[in-house]
Automatic annotation (TrEMBL):
Residues 215-290 form the Cation efflux protein cytoplasmic domain. This is Ferrous-iron efflux pump FieF. PANTHER family: CATION-EFFLUX PUMP FIEF, MITOCHONDRIAL METAL TRANSPORTER 1-RELATED. The chain crosses the membrane at residues 12-32, 38-62, 83-107, 119-137, 149-173, 185-202. It is a multi-pass membrane protein. Keywords: Cell membrane, Membrane, Transmembrane, Transmembrane helix, Transport. Belongs to the cation diffusion facilitator (CDF) transporter (TC 2.A.4) family. It comes from the Bacteria.
Length: 307
């Protein structure tokens, strides 16, 4: 319980830091856009506005997902993280379309030249420093807690560094060489990055909501632990699914039917501890069958290890 409470505090700290950084960046980029009128700055401003929406959603999801299981939610509330991620991906796609449309209009019908590029460069430099610091903290939290929302938010902010660097390049090129076309070109690149990130986040959330099995490496790892475990004569019906940062594992093991219930329980409990030692944030349920059970689905020609 102490470990789970520590994870919750770290995850919440990452969520609060994300919201705080987004608020500061929105203020700085609004000022930079007012000073320069640069589309590349507008692209990063829109991205920061979406970051704020997503960070608020992520923070709410983290807070809600930490609630324990209850009578109406026997498996907990961690799917809230996936719902938040799916909503985030839709917001990103809409924003990317608006930015790309504005960039194309600027390319086809150039407007006024950029102005006060130095102010924009200063604002983008601040954005890079704050974003880099946030990403470093989020990556540390995700590594310690395994929280999927924090990890996804970290990847999204890491992607923001590229448009910010591009905006600085566009402002510098406009100031030094008068190459105003670079600004909408960078905006188009930022929109493309946003689309790629949205599709990745959305796919992961959709897979989790549709109860898709976890990756093959984790399935193989669980099978290897069960296959070599003392007292376990076989296993079948391994089923896995992911909900937010949690993985749910259901496994049938085959034990000596002549041993006592106490001995069978000890073997199952020890196997569960071994799986949790490898995958500490999994929720593991183990069903015990006697060797040669006539109800074993394999005897009916079913798949040995459906996932």
């Amino acid at each position: 319980m102490a470990g789970r409470a520590s994870d919750d505090r770290l995850n919440l700290s990452a969520g609060i830091a994300s919201v705080s950084v987004a608020l500061v960046l929105i203020a700085a980029k609004l000022w930079a856009l007012w000073q320069t009128g640069a589309l590349s700055v507008a692209a990063t401003l829109a991205d920061s506005a979406l970051d704020l929406v997503m960070s608020l959603g992520a923070l709410a999801a983290i807070a809600y997902a930490r609630r324990p299981a209850d009578a109406d939610h026997a498996f907990g509330h961690s799917s809230a993280e996936d719902l938040a991620a799916l909503g985030q991906s839709l917001f990103i796609l809409v924003s990317a379309a608006l930015i790309a449309g504005g960039a194309m209009m600027r390319l086809n019908a150039p407007g006024d030249a950029l102005s006060n590029e130095g102010a924009g460069i200063a604002a983008m430099a601040l954005s890079i420093v704050l974003t880099a610091g946030l990403v470093a903290w989020q990556r540390r939290v995700a590594r310690l807690t395994g929280n999927r929302v924090v990890a996804a938010d970290s990847l999204h902010y890491l992607g923001d560094l590229i448009p910010a660097l591009g905006a600085i390049g566009a402002l510098w090129a406009s100031r030094r060489f008068g190459l105003d076309w670079i600004d909408p070109a960078v905006a188009l690149g930022a929109a493309a990055l946003m689309v790629g990130g949205a599709l990745k986040i959305g796919r992961g959330a959709w897979d989790a909501l549709m109860d898709r099995a976890v990756d093959d490496d984790m399935v193989a790892g669980i099978e290897a632990i069960a296959g070599d475990f003392p007292g376990v004569h076989g296993h079948h019906d391994l089923r896995t699914r992911r909900a937010g940062s949690r993985v749910f594992v259901n496994l049938h093991i085959e034990l000596d039917g002549e041993q006592s219930l106490h001995e069978a329980h000890e073997i199952g409990a020890a196997l569960k501890r071994a799986i949790l030692a490898r995958y500490p944030r999994a929720d593991v349920i183990i069903h015990k069958d006697p060797v040669g059970d006539p109800h074993d689905p394999r005897r009916a020609g079913a798949e040995q290890r459906p996932r």
